[in-house]
Fold these 2 entries.
Entry 1:
Amino acid sequence: MHSDLYSTLSRIDRKTLLLTLHNKANNFSISSIESINKALDQVESDSSIKTLITTGTGKFYSTGLDLKFIANSPRKITDRFLPDHYHPLLKRVLTMPCWTVAAVNGYSIAAGMTFALAHDYVLVQKNFGWMCMNEIDLPSPMPAGMSAILRCKLLDPSLLRDVLLSGKKLRNGAFIYGEPTENVVDSSASLAETLEEKCGKTMRSIKSELYYEVIDRLNLKDSVPLYDIVRGKL
């Protein structure tokens, strides 16, 4: 099973795998995304897998982009990071050929939130799991692919407004995915048992059609000025 500095893939049972992110605050860089993709390669190579659960460690699910990586990389790398690395990861999770469950154990911020929302289901740890989008505070424009996921998954217009325009924190499952749980990984595993019978060979193609508008936005190759954003130049 895949395991490295950033993530570890383990088996819950013969049909369910758990991907644990465990590099500090689980920020996204080229290296961390390569790690996740290696794990997803293993998931997709095993047709017996019906559900993938992702989670973090400690108080972090993911706090978004790795700002240290962005600050220390040249513009030609950072301004292409979203369209060339992060958005393809979101697209891949969104269209996985099995069920996906985000077991949000702690803070899930900005790119961490949209990564979680790219899953089929999101479960939240009671008293610890919360989500927010902090682009309004950075300040940063909202990338098209990330905003498309938010519009698709947060269907309440007032909630979407508050999340994007005021940076509202969604605490204790205060959104469409139900009540928080005492043990988010165990609850995700229980959910997986109820889903496995409906994991068919056409799941990826159905997801691709279901989310085609989001995928179109994620496929945009426009550069995003992260180089200037992290330097406060916008």
Entry 2:
Amino acid sequence: MKSCPVTLGGGLRCRAPQCIQRYLIECVLLCRANRQAALTVGGHIFFQTLSAAATLGIFLTDATGLRTYHNSRWMQIAGLSLEASLGTGWVNAIHPDDRQSTIASWQQNVAEGQEWYHAHRILTPGGDVRWVHAMASPIRDASRITGFAGTVEDISSRREVDERLRESNQRLRALAAHSQQALADAQSRLSREIHDPLGQSLPAPKMDTGWLSRPLGGQLRGEP
């Protein structure tokens, strides 16, 4: 996924959802990569403030992909407690129809050490279904990956709008096809109504082909 460039020093220059997610991940990666800053009170406060104020869910994992942290927003989206969501517990929040494909996608991403982009559904304990878009980036210590930092965005409203637009477009296409067929039928009826009376009132033209059976010599002499 290609997104607008963001810089921590200059702040967030683009408000597109993917750019906000990327910016948050960059902030988390900065905190995790700079161990000295993360160990200071200021670094800890920055991370906690960022995590608590984020409108997106934030998660951290170890090198094997096991979840080690979720912020409060992630827990609100998933409907799980921190304790229930750590390790592999987070997969219990995935909708059963999307669970296998999401787990396979995540495991492949961890094995390859690549950035992760994935959309899937969440099924909360209360029965609410939510569409989310997740993305994650590896945390590197020199050439070694020590974990992943990621965000989860609730895109349910956006998906609902997209679905309504899709249904509306389908209805418009069906209406256009029906209108085109109705117009063709009307033209066909009009054509029949115009030509049928003419066909009934006018005798069909006949060609005298009797001369074809007469001898050619007689025809030349003008014999009947």
